[in-house]
Amino acid sequence: MAWNVLIAGGGFGGFYAARTLARVLPPQSTRVRLVTEDNFMLYTPLLPGAAAGTLEPRHVVVPLREELHDSIHLRLAKITGASPERNVIHVRSLDGSEEDLRYDQLVVAVGSVSRTLPIPGLAEHGRALKSLPEAIALRNHVIRTLEIAETLEDGDARREYLTYVFVGAGYAGLEGLAELQDFAADVMDLYPRCRVSGMRWILVEAGERVMPEIGPKLADFAVRELRFRGIEIRTKTTLDEVTARSARLSDGEVVPTRTLVWTAGVKPHPVVAKFGLPLDERGRIDTDSRLQVKGFDNVWAIGDCAAVPDPARKGMPSPPTAQHAIRQGRVVGRNVASALGGSGRSRRFEYKTKGVFVDMGRRKAVATTGPITWSGAPAWMLARSYHLAMMPGIGRRARLLVDWNIGLLFGRDTAELGRLGEVRSLGASLVDEESGHNGAGADRMASPAAAESSDGAAR
Q: For the whole prediction, is pTM greater than 0.85?
């Protein structure tokens, strides 16, 4: 009888669990299925680069069918829940049909989503930077604000479009703001009116300092670098309200802006609550140091959705980073193989963070490698070298190198392709032709209000 191993989720954890299982389990005796909504793994540390146009969007993802062994069966479906008492997960297939998938061993690696707070207007007017579509939409939005501002006569109205607020100064917030500000500064010469008015970039953080994941010395370097560029940093400050045209901060200032980006943390994917597994106080699946879900001998959990004990901080869960998810995927693969009677003993998760890399654009970064700290251009080179080494597949690495070198030589593209995937029906196109319209592009540029409305629909 062949064992049935099911991996729920195709992020870092699920991907590396599948690769490990393909190496350590004989395909004749085991069927390994990876269930995920997308046929690619997003290399999340490079997401800010895609948002800023430094990298092509397709080059920051890893196609699963290309990089996984033939023995891994990829199933594209939306995971809707699980019934661990029956050893099944519930999925919705691409054709909309509901199905139960049976397993002998289950690895839950469904990841996380942006954590939001009940702030008035945040859900309606805030933007996220967690997925590839969100990153590309944000880049298109920044270009659109420049285009709209360039058409406005009124200076106050123009500054409203040229003010950008980021809330949350962790990895995503700081890198995202730094890369996008770098991009906007690069293309500003193409917008004479915008250049006269200037841009305003604000980073808001509720904590006492930015980047709590790194040491104070490197965090201070990051702050100095950002302030040197004219970026405002507001620590011990929270967001109180968002409207379509402003953001109100806890220090009392109402910032006129059309762009608020929310990067204040993550939470487990909502489907985790439907798995019928024990959860901790933050909604993460409760596991032991061997990544096994407490109370279940055939269910394992890894990555952002799991409260895996952190070997570096007693009593604390592992941080939600790609480094930890990759190592957890490798450990859980071997532990599942051991549970099925394979060679080797069950292992504890013992990885401790060995380095941190924060890319800040403009060939600047901050980094730690063991006890050594780096800043500036050397850290930037280290960061790129690290991501190049960690990106799966020689073809993907070559694409990164080409993108980075082209960017260094020729700068970044300023084309806004916000409606690239929104193909009009043939009937609508014929109506436009008969009525003399020149398509969606002409309608969108008719006025700032029309452009804003269309941009919101594209989100």
A: yes
